[in-house]
């Protein structure tokens, strides 16, 4: 596995707008209760106070996808990572509205959390509509790159699943190419319908809904950790 310190990086904005009253309250009151500790080793017991299955979403946006899974499977612990503070408050609002106790939130780089989890500890990792960085000179910024993929491979259990969705043709081709080079993941697709259609157990995301609303194709990739 590549040295995680060589892949630590975060691109993009942290905050777009001043937080409104509710958002401010959620950040001050709820975030400390559900935040992933900023330092030290992580596991289910530290995060959820018990042994449980763990899943992690990288860049959850406003959190719709993560919350749908968390509500459907209350015994599984979900870790959401998102540096964009206006997105974090979106997820916090869902957690409060739905009374969810099985979600933990990291308001920063997913790599920082992945690094601190035990190897072979995650059932699933989700990377949905990652920032495409379409220019070739920015390709190293894409999350789908050998360093982050090595880390995801290490943290997934054998048989665990890595899910990628994108509506960007450059990112689609890039992801297929990067993943095809790897012997540690098996692509779970047999027919074109498998990547052209959103599976039933795959809740929509905000970016996915935008793309669909504009009639753009979305590609859904499921990879099993060998
Ligand atoms: C295009 S948005 C997609 C959001 C959401 N997944 C969706 O489909 O609606 C990509 C998100 O990834 C987040 N992101 C970028 N780099 C990240 C990183 N290293 N760790 C966690 N999130 C990251 C960005 O802040 C942004 O909110």
UniProtKB/TrEMBL annotation:
<dbReference type="InterPro" id="IPR029063">
    <property type="entry name" value="SAM-dependent_MTases_sf"/>
</dbReference>
<dbReference type="Pfam" id="PF02390">
    <property type="entry name" value="Methyltransf_4"/>
</dbReference>
<protein>
    <recommendedName>
        <fullName>tRNA (guanine-N(7)-)-methyltransferase</fullName>
        <ecNumber>2.1.1.33</ecNumber>
    </recommendedName>
</protein>
<comment type="pathway">
    <text>tRNA modification; N(7)-methylguanine-tRNA biosynthesis.</text>
</comment>
<feature type="binding site">
    <location>
        <position position="57"/>
    </location>
    <ligand>
        <name>S-adenosyl-L-methionine</name>
    </ligand>
</feature>
<feature type="binding site">
    <location>
        <position position="167"/>
    </location>
    <ligand>
        <name>substrate</name>
    </ligand>
</feature>
<feature type="binding site">
    <location>
        <position position="135"/>
    </location>
    <ligand>
        <name>substrate</name>
    </ligand>
</feature>
<keyword id="KW-0808">Transferase</keyword>
<dbReference type="InterPro" id="IPR003358">
    <property type="entry name" value="tRNA_(Gua-N-7)_MeTrfase_Trmb"/>
</dbReference>
<keyword id="KW-0819">tRNA processing</keyword>
<keyword id="KW-0949">S-adenosyl-L-methionine</keyword>
<comment type="similarity">
    <text>Belongs to the class I-like SAM-binding methyltransferase superfamily. TrmB family.</text>
</comment>
<dbReference type="InterPro" id="IPR055361">
    <property type="entry name" value="tRNA_methyltr_TrmB_bact"/>
</dbReference>
<keyword id="KW-0489">Methyltransferase</keyword>
<dbReference type="GO" id="GO:0008176">
    <property type="term" value="F:tRNA (guanine(46)-N7)-methyltransferase activity"/>
</dbReference>
<comment type="function">
    <text>Catalyzes the formation of N(7)-methylguanine at position 46 (m7G46) in tRNA.</text>
</comment>
<feature type="binding site">
    <location>
        <position position="82"/>
    </location>
    <ligand>
        <name>S-adenosyl-L-methionine</name>
    </ligand>
</feature>
<feature type="binding site">
    <location>
        <position position="109"/>
    </location>
    <ligand>
        <name>S-adenosyl-L-methionine</name>
    </ligand>
</feature>
<dbReference type="GO" id="GO:0043527">
    <property type="term" value="C:tRNA methyltransferase complex"/>
</dbReference>
<feature type="binding site">
    <location>
        <position position="131"/>
    </location>
    <ligand>
        <name>S-adenosyl-L-methionine</name>
    </ligand>
</feature>
